[in-house]
Amino acid sequence: MKLEIILGAIVLTVFLGGGIFYATSIKKTVPEDTRSAGTIHNANDETQDVAIDPVNSGLNILSNTKKQNSIALPVGPKFLSIEEKKAKFSLANDISTPDGFINTDGKPISISEFKGKKVVLLDIWTYSCINCIRTIPHLNELHKKYEDQGLVIIGLHTPEFAFEKVQKNVEDAVKRFDIKYPVVLDNDFSTWNAYGNRYWPRKYLIDMDGYIVYDHIGEGGYEETEKVIQKALLERNTRLGVEMKVPVANSGVINKIVTDRGQVRSHELYFGSARNTDLENGKSGTSGPQTLTVPSDLKADQLYLGGNWSITPEYAESSIGGTIALKYKAKNVYLVASSENGEAVEVFVDGKSIGTVFIKGEMLYTIVAGTDYKEHTLEIKVKNSGVKAFAFTFG
């Protein structure tokens, strides 16, 4: 089903940090290939809306049980009634017009099928988003710890760029990030819109009665999220008469990506004409060929291109001898890029070569893995034509 939107002229330039924001004004349905990804920016690491109190006492309360009709009943917190939940929470929307399923053995999956049976954590993400990538190790850990206790994680993959609609690309990313929980493709944004969402990543915790009892925007809040999951699982297992195990101590998240967002000044920079408002030495908002020269004095957090570039709404494509330059303040620099035949680009930081990065598949590449958060000058030299640059992100 090709449900599409024209993005309104809403351009928000708010730097928050820790997630990506998508702003759109829905006008009418249009053909799929004319869709733009909208205006996005960082969302605060600490931005969250905790709807219920976490379990402060942990889950060891299950050790205090008494016998009644030969069933062990836990002594613990009093859970809300259905009437109380109706007054406090909203019912979760089901997945709408899914475009594909991964890690489900080819079978469709929905949220409603788990009502009365499981607790669902819905994670809205997209595979080229560094903020989403940094949350995946924590989600993998939650899946490992609580899958057998009644938690189902569903990754709702809503694409930022057109290439993220390709299921093979998403499947490759799922393997690369070692994701074992189900992933659903939301290429038409229908489920995203049903939730009124504007962020990557965003997490909704849905209890066994189908109510959204917790909502978190962006990165961070991992301990808080886990405590709320524990409480929802405790309610579920208590009502189903299932003994819940005390979770083992966190053994450490594998492949955890650590960044101090407070020291990162630079924000996303986009190459495509739909969003390249920070293209300092060229015509922003204009598609077509441009021949540009990089000046000797660069303004901070502005994008500069050198040589001949063909600019489309989503990306800028290089000709032979093209360059990319910017002055940034962050530890790590990431580039969403692709190249049909595979091209090596040489990377310079403060005038010194730090090596080459081979770009081929449509994905996010680590351009600089730095050691400090000081201001630096970056230059990328593209020897051959055909490199498509979509966006810079920082960490």
Describe the secondary-structure layout:
Blueprint: E1 20-23, E2 39-42, E3 48-49, E4 65-68, E5 71-74, H1 82-88, E6 90-91, E7 100-102, E8 119-125, H2 130-146, E9 151-157, H3 167-176, E10 183-185, H4 190-194, E11 199-200, E12 202-206, E13 211-217, H5 222-240, E14 269-270, E15 288-292, E16 304-311, E17 316-318, E18 322-329, E19 332-339, E20 343-349, E21 352-359, E22 363-369, E23 375-382, E24 387-394
Parallel strand pairs: 8-9, 9-10
Antiparallel strand pairs: 1-2, 1-11, 3-13, 4-5, 6-13, 7-10, 8-12, 12-13, 14-24, 15-16, 16-17, 16-18, 17-24, 18-23, 19-22, 19-24, 20-21, 20-23
Written overview of the protein:
The chain folds into two domains: about 200 residues, Glutaredoxin (3-Layer(aba) Sandwich), CATH 3.40.30; about 130 residues, Galactose-binding domain-like (Jelly Rolls). The protein is elongated, with a radius of gyration of 23 Å. The protein is α+β, with helices and mostly antiparallel strands. Strands 14, 15, 16, 17, 18, 19, 20, 21, 22, 23 and 24 form an eleven-stranded antiparallel β-sheet that branches. Strands 3, 6, 7, 8, 9, 10, 12 and 13 form an eight-stranded mixed β-sheet that branches. The chain has a three-stranded antiparallel β-sheet with strand order 2-1-11, with no helix packed on it.
